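This part of the workshop introduces the protein records we will be handling. Getting from the letters to the C-alpha cells is the skill we practise here. The record below serves as our worked example for the rest of this section.

…
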Amino acid sequence: MTKGEATQIKVHYKGKEDDFIIFIDDVETYKKWKDDKSVPMAHFISAFKIFVTHKQGAQGQMDGASNATLQNEFGVSNEDEVIKKILESGSIQESEFPERQGNKNDAQQGSIASGR
C-alpha cells in the first residue's frame, strides 16, 4: 500500500431515528460471520464502538452512540447486542482514499536561507 492510501470499510444501518455505523477491517471474515456465527466478531471489527450520524446517512458527522439512543432505536442498550443487530441488518460501504501526491518531505527541498 502506498503512503496515504487507505480503504475504509463500514457497516451502515439506517434506523427509525438515526443512522448507525460500525467500522470493520475484513469484509471476507464479516461475510463468513453472517453465515456462521461461530466466527469471532473480534476477527473483523475494527473497534467495538457504535457511531451515530444524526440522520446524515453514512457520510455525516460521527459521534459515539449513547445508551439512551441505543435503547430508543434497538430496545436494548447492551452494545454487543446492538453491534450484532447492525452487522446482521446493515449494508457494507467501502471508501478508497488515494495515495498522497506532491512533495513527501519539504525539509529536503533545499534551504531557504542559502537559496538552494
Notes: The mean pLDDT is 82.
